[in-house]
Write a structure and sequence with these properties.
Elements: H1 6-9, H2 11-32, H3 39-86, H4 122-129, H5 137-152, H6 156-176, H7 183-212
Length: 213
């Protein structure tokens, strides 16, 4: 099973957490040093810190959502093309132009190191989408959810945003191929969302328990 190195995927989340910590320190420092004379000055500092946090949050969450969508769409596009090849339809095979999508997403970026899809035989395509195959349900779902979970860690808001991106990725792939997903992609989506939703439920439960302490 292909896994994603957390150090390569959560750098933006780490940067977000660092920005949050710095902003918190700035806010705390401003509060501790406040007096009637410097009240307006410190109010400005507090406002600026809050704005910086808001901008950082929006940027990071948008990044996580976009990257989740890209990962999901790339894997789903491949499943679509391979399913067509298995059925003897090579209409979409050149979509990847070797190993790269029209949007520039490389199949190598999601861990695929085999032949370009345009060079596959019908049997080789079948192997890739079969049980245990690189683009089979289990492998693809594990790859997508691993990517998302490694990016977001235990940050609930980040995970929720990434879930939205994951769904958008499936929807974009669906539109690209005429509004329908092959059964393998539908089942991959269901399995992926099941894993992500379980993690969200776990984090929500943890937050609730902390609130009661």
């Amino acid at each position: 099973m292909n896994t994603i190195n957390p150090s390569q995927t959560n750098q933006y989340l780490n940067a977000f957490n660092e920005n949050m910590a710095k902003a918190s320190e700035q806010i705390t420092s401003s509060k501790e040093g406040s007096s009637d004379i410097f009240e307006n000055k410190n109010d400005t500092k507090l406002h600026n810190a809050a704005v910086n946090v808001s901008i950082s949050t929006h940027s990071i969450m948008n990044y996580l959502k976009v990257k989740s969508a890209e990962s999901t769409q790339g894997n789903t596009n491949a499943q679509q093309i391979l399913t067509n090849l298995v059925n003897g339809n090579d209409e979409y095979v050149n979509f990847f132009n070797g190993k790269t999508t029209e949007s520039g997403l490389s199949l190598e970026s999601i861990g695929y190191e085999g032949k370009a899809l345009s060079e596959l035989t019908q049997g080789e395509a079948q192997d890739l989408v079969s049980e245990g195959g690189f683009f089979g349900i289990d492998e693809t779902s594990a790859r997508v959810t691993s990517f998302v979970l490694n990016m977001t860690g235990d940050n609930l808001e980040a995970l929720q945003q990434s879930r939205e991106g994951l769904v958008e990725g499936f929807e974009q792939a669906q539109k690209l191929f005429g509004g329908e997903l092959p059964d393998i992609s539908v089942k991959t989506q269901e399995k992926s969302l099941e894993v992500i939703d379980a993690k969200i439920a776990e984090l929500l439960k943890t937050d609730s328990e902390k609130a009661l302490e």
